[in-house]
Amino acid sequence: MTIADRAKPQDPELALIAPSGGFNKFVRKNSGAANLIRQAALVPVLIIVLIVGALASPFFFTVDNIAGVSQQISALAVTVVGESLILLIGGMDLSLESTYGLAPMVAAWMILPIADDGNGWLLSPFLGIVILLAVGAAVGLLNGFLIVKARLNGFIVTLGMTIVLAGMQNGIVKAQTLFNLPPAFVWLGSADVGVVPVSAIAAAIVFIVIGLFLRYHRVGRAIYAVGGNPDAARAAGIRVDRVKIGVYVAGSMLAALGGLMEAGRVSAVTGTQGYGEGIIFTVFAAAVIGGVSLKGGRGNMVGAASGVILLGLVQNILDLANVSNYWIEAIDGVVILFALVLARVIGGKESAE
Amino acid sequence: MTQLFTVEAKGIEKSFGSTKALRGVDLHIDAGQCLGLVGRNGAGKSTLVSILSGLSKPDAGEVFFHGEPAPSLRDVDGWRKQIATVFQHSKVVPQLSVTENVFLGSPAVRRGAVDWRQMREATRKIIDEWNFDISVTARCETLTVEQLQIVEIVRALATGAQCILLDEPTSALERRAVDRLFERVNQLVKNGVAVLYISHHLEEVFDICSDVTVLRDGEVVVNSPIADIDKDQMVAAMVGELPATANVTDELGVLLQREKAGNGEVVREGLVVEDLRVTSSRGDVIGVSLTVKPGECVGVTGLLGAGVATLGRAVAGSQKFDGGTVTLNGRSLASGRRDLSLRDGVGYIPENRQLEGFVAHLGVGENVTMTITDRLARRFGLMRPRRRDEAAVALTEALSVISSGMRQPVGELSGGNQQKVTVARSLMSNPSLIVAVTPTRGVDVASKSLLLQSLIEASRSTGAALLICSDELDDLVDCDRIIVLFHGSIYYEFSSSPFDREALIAATEGISLSDRTAS
Q1: pTM
Q2: Most buried of the four, B264, B265, B384, B478, by CB within 10 Å?
């Protein structure tokens, strides 16, 4: 490229801002190293947690335990990916935790016979999984429409939606827990390939695919532009509303997928899955600890993944260390708050806000 | 015994990382003096303002008030008693009343409670004394930009500050408001207040300043009474050696022509706007019809609120219109659909670059190519960041954007360079029509002419129609025609350059000068 190789005209500002000559630096990856450091900010913390874990229990570093942890956190991890996408466009979705419970409940209800508290349609489990994703998509579409098109506040819309969906989750099955799920339905959450849980592989694939999508796909880049400055994105011809609604749909579908994994892991869909367990705080915490900004436009999947792993390991260590069941939630909460502070210290001003 | 200046800065140095923003700046303002501070974007003006306002600490050097060393940065009240700054972007809390804003942060207190009556009276006294015209109980969100500035000036006077810094005070004011501001500044100066006036508009500096200091690359290059310097000398001092603007735009023309040729589409009919009607809080447009032929440059101007910006936004697809048609090359453009307008060949430089021009934390390359992701994407919509940056290099260089690389966040660039990024973004898509709304706002003299010449060159070399909507007459000097809007309708059309500046101004005010234009 001849133009790029030519020297710059003698602009006085150049000497001030870019003291070192030639023009080929225009394609230099100058902020690559800095980005990597920021993305890897949680690695030292993870190492410390691993050391603490090893000290806390000899069982910590066994294959069984690590496999168990990875299976436990994969459902949450997939939901965190969904929330991170929504945070990236500058939105927020509290109702993911209810979608995480309602979607598998509706699917299981349509699969199971009346004797098992199903509705007796006896759908195939594969069709059930399609229904599950459709429930996620429908919830996301409704949220997206209310927030983007009707211009309602995202916080209050999704808070209301959370309660509606959780109510439906119990309402359709009269607050029963659904057992006897068919093998195909629980496979994703319970099967193993060798020692590796299928759900962990699935979660890893979700992280990698979404991570690459965000980095290399034009719509992925549009998500960053929309979250960073929606007006600038609109002026540049990006269909801001469509991107936003699409992300709400994708986020809810990922939450539904997470719900499927969780149902498979425990071989049941309970009335408390999701909203009853209050997973949304952990979902937000993992994303924010991983450097996804609540203001939109900043963050990536490497960070979100390390946030999830960090919280999963801490939870595991607390379990292994025989912390009193009465206190485990309080300690968990304190650890999350501490991790938020730490993420802020490491990641600098732009993180954890 | 040396003279005791109201404000004196000695040997101020300040660095940000490896960039030296100020290199030993000396500056002093005396009571009853209005000192103009000028310099290009990135010359160090903002850094100096923040140091003089007590917002940041110099690496070396000291600030003196009346010969005494300045209080520490923690002593906010101490600083405010000495010097008060009216910033470019208003620092007024819109939800609070005028009184509350005047006493913001240091309310008058009596017996442990806020003393409303005393605060209101003190505010009213200042407002009366200076013949300002605002109510002390008005909520600031109901005030105009001009009135907000008055609130900030009153705030400065209330603290008893002997020095007022005005940072780009006219950037959001219409012409008559500027005149009134100048009257007030003159009044302040006459009463012994020291004023530091920072502006990109050199005419303003000549109008009201008694002395001028020119900054370049963090150094004072000129410090002189205004009477001893003319405009050309001042520009020369600001710019140093003039960059080769002509060459740059030639290069741009060649580059765009090649791109356009590769794209194959030929501009045929240009832009036709018929009976356009738009409702907007920025000023309605009421039945405007105009045409811009391929390669032609048409300017639209008028007072703030006359519908100039609204017209630009509507034509660009950034604003819904109520009626009428916008046709480009025979194809009718959708109303309020920026994405469709872009596809149909409309490049758009929005009015406010901070709000709409770029995504601050994304890199130069990504911002510039934001309009052409459909072209850059390969299979499955995937794009390589490197390819994206390479696509942006040629155009950013042709516009002489100064950055440390294609990955540098645009938010870190100086204002002029940010605007060049916005212009590059709009030219990137090989538009058949370029709509530029106030394309040089807040941009320094040298970048200003480069931006305007680039736009005209882009239009001439590719045959794109160019529509410049601006209330700054300097933006329109090189246009082929100028259309003046008054209350949303076309008031007058000036169809041949050179344009009579006074007749233009009169037309924006709705005064007919038909006898003059005839001559």
Answers
A1: 0.80
A2: B478
Nearest to B49 by CA among B184, B223, B168: B168
CB atoms within 10 A of CB A272: 14
pLDDT (tens digit per residue) in B276-294: 999 988 889 999 999 999 9
Two tokens, residue A253 = 């579908």
Task: Classify residue A285: in a domain, yes or no.
Answer: yes
A219 touching B, CB under 8 A?
yes
Query: Which phi and psi (to 5°) does residue A134 adopt?
Result: -65, -40
Segment holding A284, helix H or strand E: helix A280-289
In DSSP terms, A36 is beta-bridged to none
pLDDT bin (cut points 50, 70, 90) of residue B474 is confident
**pLDDT tens figures, B73-100:** 888 778 888 888 888 777 888 888 999 8
- Report the C-alpha gap between B482 and B496 in whole angstroms: 8
pLDDT surpassing 70 at residue A216: yes
Q: Which amino acid is at A157?
A: V
* Cβ neighbours for A273, distance < 8 A, ≥ 6 positions apart: A100, A101, A104, A105, A169, A259, A262, A263
Omega cis (within 30) before B498: yes
Reply yes or no on whether the pLDDT at A17 is more than 50. Answer: no
The tokens for B259 are 């791109």
Using the Cβ of A12 and the Cβ atoms of chain B, whether some distance falls under 8 Å is answered with yes
Contact residues, B window 164-223, toward A, CB-based 8 Å cutoff: 216-218
Q: How many CB atoms are closer than 10 A to CB A248?
A: 29
Reported as a single tens digit per residue, the pLDDT across B20-53 is: 888 889 998 998 899 999 887 778 888 898 898 8
User: What are the tens digits of pLDDT across the range B292-314?
Assistant: 999 999 999 998 788 999 999 99
Q: Does residue A2 fall inside a structural domain?
A: no
Q: Who has greater pLDDT, B161 or A6?
A: B161
- For B26-35, give one letter per residue: b (16+ CB within 10 A) or e: ebbbbbebbb
Residues 246-305 of A with CB under 8 A from B: 297-298
Which of A224, A232, A350 lies closest to B356 in CB terms?
Answer: A232
Q: Could you count the other beta carbons within 10 Å of the beta carbon of residue B355?
A: 13
For residues A87 and A251, give the distance between their C-alpha atoms in angstroms, rounded to a whole number.
Answer: 10
Interatomic CA distance for residues B172 and B352, integer angstroms: 11
Q: Which of A10, A14, A16 to mutate to test the interface with B (most CBs of B within 10 A)?
A: A16
Q: Which residues of A touch B356 (CB under 8 A)?
A: 229, 231-232, 234-235
Q: Which residue range forms the structural domain that includes residue A117? A: 41-347
Percent of chain B beyond pLDDT 90?
32
DSSP output for B152-191: HHHHHHHTT-SEEEEESTTTT--HHHHHHHHHHHHHHHHT
Q: Which residues, including other chains, have CB under 8 Å from residue A328's CB and lie 6 or more apart?
A: A318, A319
Min Cα distance A292 → chain B (Å) is 14
* Per-position DSSP letters for B24-58, written without gaps between them: EEEEEE-TT-EEEEE--TTSSHHHHHHHHTTSS--
In a domain, A32, yes or no: no
> For residues A339 and B224, which has the higher predicted lDDT (pLDDT)?
B224
pLDDT surpasses 60 at B215: yes
CATH of residue A171: 1.10.3470
As for how many domains chain A has, the answer is: 1
Task: Write out the two tokens for B58.
Answer: 């110099």
Residue A157 is assigned to a structural domain of this protein: yes
Check if A238 contacts B (Cβ < 8 Å).
yes
